[in-house]
Write a structure and sequence with these properties.
Blueprint (H helix, E strand, L loop, with lengths): L3 E4 L2 E4 L4 E7 L9 E6 L6 E6 L6 E3 L7 E6 L4 E6 L8 E7 L10 E6 L1
Amino acid sequence: QVQLQESGGGLVQAGGSLRLSCAASGRTFSFYGMGWFRQAPGKEREFVAGISRDGGATSEAPSVKGRFSISRDNVKNTVFLQMNNLKPEDTAVYYCNSLAQPFPWGQGTQVIVSS
């Protein structure tokens, strides 16, 4: 069973940047495509970005394309989300998880973007 722990969130002004990290326990981390998801207040959780098992392929939601990028380090069992040119509508709790069968969700990391 993989356990996930997100970090790196915070309060930032519009136009700023943050880098989120997701540390995963377990030796099988590299077997899974991984993704970042977010949930804003009063809204459903949505897909943000995904990355293949070896990191060779990535995809981003249209709302973040060109501003966010996902990467991973399979040696350190960590997935990253670089977020640039942040907008107030990016305010949400951010989570990472497998793109296929999800593991138990972590607590997420809060991102607040002020205008």
